[in-house]
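Q: Could you fold this chain for me?
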Amino acid sequence: QVQLVESGGGLVQPGGSLRLSCAASGFPFSRYAMSWYRQAAGKQRELVARITSGASTNYADSVKGRFTISRDNAKNTVYLQMNSLKSEDAAVYYCNAYYVPRVGFKPDDYWGQGTQVTVSS
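A: Sure. Below is the predicted structure, expressed as structure tokens.
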């Protein structure tokens, strides 16, 4: 059974930091691209950061230089270190696992339940 369990969300003041974790199970974690998405109230879900199976990373422009995604394949866990948080970073953050077994095949696309990040003084 595939599971993605996010943790680490909470309330933080502007300028503060949080570290999100996503513990994965039920699939070969190291093969999958792992991503963090977020969805603020009344807005569409957006990609925040992605790390490939080869550890290449990319970030949304809005978080570059402030957020860092990393993975620990031994622990089947992906992290999102969030620094210098702003009010506009407040959202539900979702972990995603994605893998295309072969060109033309339906991809594996798994989601966690989300963790709330609130940025407020």
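A (continued): The radius of gyration is 14 Å.
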